[in-house]
Amino acid sequence: MTTQQIPVVVLAGFLGAGKTTLLNHVLRSARGTRIGVMVNDFGDIGIDAMTVAGQVGSTVSLGNGCLCCAVDASELDEYLEVLARPASRLDVIVIEASGLAEPQELVRMVLASENERIVYGGLVQVVDAAEFSATRQRHPETDRHLPIADLVVVNKADRVSEDELRDVHETVRGLAGKAVVVDARHGRIDPELLFDRVVPEGEIEGQMSIEDILYGEDGEDAPHAHPHAEYETVSLAAAAPLDPRRLMAFLDSRPEGLYRIKGFVDFGAADPANRYTVHAVGRFLRFYPEPWPEGEERLTQLVLIGSGVDAAGLRKELASCELNGPQDAPDEHGMWGVLRYVQRTEEEPDES
Ligand SMILES: Nc1nc2c(ncn2[C@@H]2O[C@H](COP(=O)(O)OP(=O)(O)OP(=O)(O)O)[C@@H](O)[C@H]2O)c(=O)[nH]1
């Protein structure tokens, strides 16, 4: 009996590009394909793991830290072992890299895995169409990530004009070599694009060979540039609800370097029914209210990622948003500032 190897697809892209959104779309529209998910979050609180649509028993979170910096592939192997055991009956495994990971390192680690039940299934690189130029300027290494991709998704097509989208698409196509380049809104790609791109043995589609990736183009295992060396992460978990006005004042004046915020906010009596998922990517800010999951502890959990930021100052500012007991109740219009950033149409259910 021959055992089918499970393809392991690496899903990468800069902070906030839309990896989790794409992954959730794929999970929702998988139609019978059994997908195992490995999430590599950056920050003490695993926000991504919490926002990936649950497939019980087939999601593992790699927690704080960057997988691409692990000294060897043993931690990855440990998790692959869990996901790839025959009882899981998975058809494909997707590793969502942290937004600061070096995708080449992740690919190397999958290729180096000793697990015989898995095979490298390709690299998907998600690009934020609206932030692409700015990200390239700040992180020129972005250009190195595209040629090793098998599929590049130019996401957030809705956030740019048609001309801008064409420009980004053309630039990406120029950098991405033979990779397939598709445009998307809210990560809505055909899931088949992800699963059918199993790489033929000995060859990675695109310009680089497996040897190039394993040993570096010049045959040397050169140390990789770390975008996250310059980034700092601040995590906050607060039991007290936040005051909407104070939080908005904080968000409206957030420093330039604070590129990414994600998490859940409890506004207490100002909206007892809903938990507010918050996302900031660059100057983009959105709240997504949804009923608190049953039995879930009412906590605010935030992860802030930025470069050149004053972590202690941010912590202090966030702490000052917490409500101090009943005498500190938010006023009745307090939520207006938050509701300006709620856009329900963005998370429409899939057409499929
Ligand atoms: N307008 C718009 N917003 C999008 C699109 N795709 C994702 N978003 C929003 O962008 C924000 C970040 O999306 P995520 O999917 O969390 O991004 P990510 O790449 O997983 O983020 P990190 O894990 O922090 O690197 C969220 O508010 C998403 O709803 C899109 O195509 N258009």
TrEMBL record:
Query: Is Hydrolase among this UniProt entry's keywords?
Result: yes
Q: Which InterPro entries match?
A: CobW-likC_sf, CobW-like_C, CobW/HypB/UreG_nucleotide-bd, P-loop_NTPase, Zinc-reg_GTPase_activator
Concerning SUPFAM superfamilies, the annotation shows: Hypothetical protein YjiA, C-terminal domain (SSF90002), P-loop containing nucleoside triphosphate hydrolases (SSF52540)
Q: Does the keyword DNA-binding apply?
A: no
**Superkingdom to which the source organism belongs:** Bacteria
Q: Which reaction does it catalyse?
A: GTP + H2O = GDP + phosphate + H(+)
**Keywords on record:** Chaperone, Hydrolase, Nucleotide-binding
Residue intervals of the CobW C-terminal domain: 231-322
Which family is this sequence assigned to? Answer: Belongs to the SIMIBI class G3E GTPase family. ZNG1 subfamily.
- PANTHER family linked: COBW DOMAIN-CONTAINING PROTEIN, COBW-RELATED
Identification of the protein by name: CobW family GTP-binding protein
The source organism is: Streptomyces wedmorensis
